[in-house]
What does this fold into?
Amino acid sequence: MALTFDAEHPDRPHRAAVSEGLLDVLAEGRVASTWFLQGRWVESTHEVARRVATDGHLVGNHSFYHARLPLLTDAGLVTDITDAERVIGEIVGADPRPWFRCPFGAGEDDPRVLGILASLGYRNIGADVVLEDWEPARTGPILAAHALRLVFEHGDGAVVLFHAWPPGTLDALPAIIDGLRAIGASFVRIDELERFAS
Ligand SMILES: [Zn+2]
It folds into this structure.
């Protein structure tokens, strides 16, 4: 299965510490994952953003401003997507193509958005398991139990969506990794999942 992290909202408190903590947990567990980076987040935290790539995680594009993409004009979409690509290239040293995740999932069924993404060399990567880890009431133990149940129900190849800033996500991640390993899971990057192989 593929654990994925959306790194966004540079104004969130404790954001950098949570992101670094997640990277520590992934490194300790030798877990490969995929991170979709928002351009403004990358600009706000060069070191953590670079570490995502140097730790061996796959880097994708999560837009520059984290707007709802269907609200943007064609030209606005191109700017938002390519601005993120540029700062990821300059600061992280990675080319995020073809991996993209629409902010809020907005636009993932919109032919205009998907067409512009495709013209820029991207494909949108949705998620099979969404834990709503952005809800403050969803503490670590709740998230961990929910994640294990949903991933088990989905079965092989699940793409699991986390965010890189909620403290509950950091609390939950060690138990999620241990629990999934206990039922036989192995963790791969999106580019290693069979259905996304090109
Ligand atoms: Zn997002």
User: Anything to note?
Assistant: The pocket of zinc ion is lined by residues 6, 8, 62, 66, 103 (CB under 6 Å). Residues 102 and 108 are 6 Å apart (CA to CA). Residues 74-92 form the longest helix (19 residues). The two ends are 18 Å apart (CA to CA).
